[in-house]
Amino acid sequence: MAKDSPTFSPLYKQIKRLTVQALEAGEWQPGQVIPSEQDLALRFGVSQGTVRKAVDELALENILVRKQGKGTYVSTHQDPRAAFRFLRLKALDGHLISPKSLPLECIRAKAGCEAARNLGLEPGGPIVMLRRLLRFEGKPIVIEEMYLPGEVFPGLNMEVIKDWHGSLYSLFESRFGVRMIRAEEKVRAVAADKTVAELLNVAESTPLLSVERLAFTYGDKPVEWRRGLYSTADYYYANELS
Amino acid sequence: MAKDSPTFSPLYKQIKRLTVQALEAGEWQPGQVIPSEQDLALRFGVSQGTVRKAVDELALENILVRKQGKGTYVSTHQDPRAAFRFLRLKALDGHLISPKSLPLECIRAKAGCEAARNLGLEPGGPIVMLRRLLRFEGKPIVIEEMYLPGEVFPGLNMEVIKDWHGSLYSLFESRFGVRMIRAEEKVRAVAADKTVAELLNVAESTPLLSVERLAFTYGDKPVEWRRGLYSTADYYYANELS
DNA sequence: AAGTGGTCTAGACCACGTC
DNA sequence: ACGTGGTCTAGACCACTTT
């Protein structure tokens, strides 16, 4: 590409794009090694340094993981350390937590206005709605409601979810080939209604965190919209600012 | 340094450290240009590429800002775009917001147990306590209480704050030479008590976001501990996950 | 010993801003 | 025209892991 044109894109950005395309196409699976920098350089016809810069950025975006002496891997939600990568809850007193998921409901329905807008679907298009409860050390802490494009998750139902031992995102990844890359969250404070209060075992109108999440896969395509209600008596939502 | 030693640190990390030291020492002031990569390479006796890698990381940490064709600058909270860099509130309907700060109280006191622990001070050591209200488009949305090490902010009082036109962090930066680099926040949901409800113009026991922040300056030294209560009827706390 | 990523160098050229 | 950061290359050597 002419470097002076207004659409100038450096080589390493193009290598990045080609690499992501290969990932999207399933050429390398989550958890597996990708070719060495030298091999990629040969394949793409650039120098190793240029591949390095592309891979550096993909590693920074948590799409790839470098391991010195071993190779570069496709990151995966299967990895226990990354299983709840997007869950920001920490215990107030600092002890470790390991959430247990209890699915409540899984139905297929037509997209409402809001869900359609967030997921980039036609209103009335097919979606899957999923509700679950998260327990921390036995205590019910989070109740979540998720909306997924029906066509992207064929065959997703209560049985599949109950049979799965692992995080939801690892299920999505290995069963449906959908990897969550990044997400945006909108956090607010709301009061617990009667239903929610019972599920979370708190008094009605207890303040809860409302966490609305839009999650994206490759190519910044939104594939999940969820809303969670977090009981923050013993836990907090952790965030790093920089 | 012997590269095989267990304390091996790559050259560019050392250059990073030296650069931060120069910043701490005030050799280059916020908003100003630092020497070119070529000059820094000569000064530190390394190649330009090594300086580049050090500067790249410092730019990623928002400590420096690169401007192609012009040079590399020390980032500043004076810059209007960075003024409220750490404030994550956005309007629900997406319109732009420009907070106005109304200082309520500024007193010197002795550090309580919690403040001392967070700021790394002796309990009973001198601190400054500061309370303020943030208004968004005329509406009171945030009430904050801050605790600062007294010795780091000599002469900070109500008058100084009221005379200042700009963000608090830009005041800290230009008047006291304290630059906030990064921060950790703990977010929870709480109910408004009577006092807070009046200040924020909401009903008593309205759910509010409790945002506790610990802010760090160079060398990961904590220099501010604050707690804010956010009214999230019309605004939300935005977060990016990756 | 061989292969991987990680660091460091030196040099060329491009894009951007200023003079 | 000049100086800045931005990209790209080629090659050397180091650190880590596996064979």
List keywords for this structure.
homodimer, 242 residues, alpha+beta, Arc Repressor Mutant, subunit A, 2 domains, DNA-binding
How is this structure best described in words?
Two copies of one chain form a homodimer. Chain A has seven helices and eleven strands. By secondary structure, chain A is an alpha+beta fold. Chain A folds into two domains: 11-74, Orthogonal Bundle (Arc Repressor Mutant, subunit A); 80-237, Chorismate lyase (3-Layer(aba) Sandwich). In chain A, the strands form three sheets. Chain A has a six-stranded antiparallel beta sheet. In chain A, strands 1-3-2 form a three-stranded antiparallel beta sheet. In chain A, helix 1 crosses helix 3 and helix 2 (37-44) packs across helix 3. The radius of gyration of chain A is 20 Å and the shape is globular. The two termini of chain A are 35 Å apart. Chain A binds chain B through residues 61-62, 85-86, 88, 90, 181-191, 205, 207-209, 212-213, 230, 232, 236-242, and chain B through 61-62, 85-86, 88, 90, 181-191, 205, 207-209, 212-213, 230, 232, 236-242. Strand 11 (235-241) of chain A pairs antiparallel with strand 8 (182-191) of chain B. The structure holds a DNA duplex (19 and 19 nucleotides).
